[in-house]
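Posting this for the archive.
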Amino acid sequence: MQIYDTLRRCWVALTPEEWVRQHTIGWLVSEMNIPALRITQEYPVNINGQHQRADIVVIDEFAKPHILVECKAPDINIDNEVAMQACRYNAVVGANYIMLTNGQKIFCYEYDGRSYRPV
């Protein structure tokens, strides 16, 4: 089964994680009033020479990463391992906030340049 991704303008496989990503993007646009043009999917992150990708990165009005979002499938617990993955990505990306979600739970943290605190 596939779903049309309006941001990437292509059909993608509808995996459980993709379902969470698409619903998170919809929520960011409709509920948080973030313009779709400021949302990037599969944002490239190079960690120790390995090419990885952050699920979603929201760019601010100055073209700087503002929110890094890590999406997991609904059956995946949002635990310390998921948080550490997002923190590793954010060490490269430098967003002000990270958000972790499995579509059922959402955790948000603000990064002050040294540490993360829940918001």
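The CA atoms of residues 28 and 86 lie 18 Å apart. The chain has two helices and eight strands.
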